[in-house]
Structures are given as C-alpha cells and as structure tokens.
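Weekly puzzle thread! Below is a chain. First person to post its structure in token form gets bragging rights.
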Amino acid sequence: MRFLVFIPPKDFRDESLSMVKLFFSKWGVDCKVTSYSSKECVGSHGAVITPDINTSKVFASEYDGIALIDGGGIDEYKLCDYRPLLDLILNFDSSRKYIISMGNSVKIPARANVIGGKKIATNDRESARLATLFHGVLSNSNFEMAGNMITIKSSSDIEDCMQQILEHMGVT
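Winning reply:
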C-alpha cells in the first residue's frame, strides 16, 4: 500500500506527522511526504522536513490514499481554498482512494465537497462549520470512517485510532 502524507509548508503539527509516519512504517505502508513547497517545511514545534515530492507532481492513480496533516499552516496558507489541492482531493475521492484528515485539515475535503452525508470527526470550530455547510454529519467520536473518508478529531487521537483505521483499510 502506498500513501501520500500532505503537510503545509509551515506550522504543520509535528506530532501528527510523526505518529502517522510511525504507524505507516509499523504496518509496512510506503509513504511519501508531500507539500506545495520543494524546500524544507517547518513544523509548529520546529521539525524540519524536506518533502519527497512536490504536490503539483502527484497523480492520485499512483497512491492508495492521502493523509492530510493538521496545523496552523492549513489556515495560514489558506489551503482549504487552494484549487490544485482541492482538485487532487477530488481525484482521490472519485477514484475511491482513502482520504485521512485530522483536526483542522478537515476543511480541505469539506471545501473539495467530498464529505456530503458522511460522518465527520473534528474539534475545530471552523472545520465543523464547513463540514455542516458541505452537508457532512458532525460526530462526537474521536474518529470516523465513512467509506473512503476517514476523519480524526485531533492529533491527540491518532495513536488511539490508527490501528483500527489501518485494519479497516485492509493493511495486514
């Protein structure tokens, strides 16, 4: 299984990225970090990551899914309004490939309009507003799996739910 892990160029949640990469590695999922910057990306706690691939060069057909990492950079770079990223999410969704979104990164699939009728877990007020606006069904759970859409309420919930998510995806 191959996954993309998308991070904002700045202020992504370091702990979210490290937990997702840890679980993917533990379960043998090949993952590539991607961003719209080819330069070093800096996390909110100082982690410095050089993306493996620029997001503009990504084809959904080459991956089984994408994980969207949360953090202040989602809002700072207005990534939920960035048409190329929204189009990429649409491609993943139309191909029925997994979209994992956590915390405030839920805004991206909401704005891509791929959450209609799906249960959505988020603890971010603006993400909840967008999820409701785009006909998502808000949930009080720590995470939700609705077909190919998987949402995680916050980075603190990743460790508790990643094993169940990977089992749901059929990773063995």
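Puzzle host: Confirmed. Bonus trivia for everyone else. The chain has one domain: 2-168.
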